[in-house]
Amino acid sequence: QRYEARRDMFIGELNKINGVEAMVPEGAFYAWVKFDTELTSAEFAEELLVKGGVCGVPASAFGENKYPYLRFSMASSDEDLAEAAKRIKAFFK
User: Fold this and answer.
1) Which of 3, 13, 17, 29 suits 77 as a labelling partner, its CA being 20 to 30 A distant?
2) What gap in Å lies between CA 10 and CA 67, rounded to an integer?
3) What is the pTM of this model?
4) Mean pLDDT of residues grouped by 10 in the chain (93 residues)?
């Protein structure tokens, strides 16, 4: 129940951001998130880390280069996930 609440909060907050589409995982503790950007997933991951202070794993690390997806672990505290969502929102402003 705690995991579901954490997942719902994180995915819900990300989906409120214009240009962000977070998929609800089916049993996994990570989220695939698509970003509206012209950058590759690796380029965007670096940009988000350097300028936004949020670390996500680029889809290219999993052999997927078609879309600018990042993968985020949700095996973190409620506070850390809320802060990550807050920073991603600020990054897109």
Assistant:
1) 17
2) 21
3) 0.89
4) 90 96 87 92 95 94 81 92 96 89
